Amino acid sequence: MTQTRSATAVSPSDSIPPHVWRIAGVVVFGALMSMLDTSLVNIGLPTIGADLHASLATVQWVASGYLLALAVSLPLCGRLARRFGPARVWVAAVAAFTIASCLCALAPGIGWLIFLRVLQGLAAGVVVPAGQTILGQAAGPRYLGRVMAVVGIAVVSAPAFGPTVGGLMLDHLSWPWLFLINLPFGVVACVLGLRVLPRQPGTRGGAVDLVGLVLAGGGASAVVYGLGELGVRDANSVLSVWLPIVLGALGLAGFVFRSLRRSEPLLDVRMFRDPVFAAANSASFFAGAAMFGLMVLLPLYFQILHHESLIRSGLLLLVYGGGGIIALPLGGRLTDRAGGGIIAVCGTVVVAATVAPLAFLPVDANPVLVQVLLFVCGVGTALSTMPLVSTAYAAVRHDQMPDAAAFVNILQRIGGATGVALIAVILSRMAESGRPALSGYHLAFAGICVLSLVAALASGVLLRVRRS
Length: 468
Description:
The protein is an all-alpha fold. The protein has 3 domains: about 15-205, MFS general substrate transporter like domains (Growth Hormone, Chain: A); about 210-265; about 270-468, Up-down Bundle (Growth Hormone, Chain: A). It has helices spanning about 20-45, 45-50, 55-60, 60-85, 85-105, 110-170, 175-180, 180-195, 210-230, 240-260, 275-305, 310-340, 340-355, 365-395, 400-430, 435-465.
């Protein structure tokens, strides 16, 4: 796995072949569709509940079931990509996601909608890692930074534009259109995927390790579920919070132990023996926790603390997404030139430096100042996430890319759930204590700042490992 250490020796003037850009465009198109769907549907939950006569606790499973299913399918993605080829898996997953979207729009009741959202989540869990596998294999270590920066457009723009798009749709259309909007995009993505993506032959392998799949998929989903419940229930709740987290952690530990003893594991955990791959994923875990936590906190900051409407809150968040989109190409080029470690250190420090003032500003703070901070924070977020992903992929062989993509996305998903849970716990506990709402948001922003600093330290470890 040492052939990828030469990323710093690549000339930044090397132009990326046109076919790689075409592949990147198709992959980003599919990723943007699946990620935008999450923010659109979450906005429509109150409307869906009212129309289908479901309680808030029940309708929340439309979102929770999707996220849990997504965590279940991630461990299987590597196996499917190796067996059938990542391009075939990507097209099949996009097609399944599109069909499930259509069925969700036609759901006659809340029970059917939850069930169909689970199927949609199973497909969505495969789209992003399969696409990253295709891109990683097509680009190779030489162009990974710049190409993976394109994938970051979906990660940054979907949460930024989703609230605005969803609010406008609900103002003029019924909630099924939140799902029907996926149909034309899904059809176009499948056609482009069949025409553009390289169809590499799969490799014959043994039977799927069903026990490993249960341990990995069930463990990851249990941890994500427990962390999600931590933010909405009593932290001392054993059955709802700590039992799923403990059982999930034991399941993941059992999966690691089982994989080390098998000649053909579901996912090759031995890749973590590579110090660069291990360090990049560790840093990505904390950077993902800060990013996803911030993406949950910022809409609440405008809607609840500043009493902004859903659409106006979305408009105020556009500057955050815009900063990320502008910085992504630069971050990719710098990653190819200097390596992801130093770029991630700078990015995470920028996030911490721009979030820290929000932990002290009053409610009536200058709105221009807040927008400037959010723009720079978006720049830092772009520089703190995708360079770590690029570095992790550059540390593995071509044939290991499917497993690497699965691991990167699993750790980011659990890291994101950790960051969201931290924000939810802080806000709910501060509200229960009777403290002013502003105090809760100040503490929440401080929590994001701490996560970013931990990510900076982990990125520093990555920098030292690569240099050694």
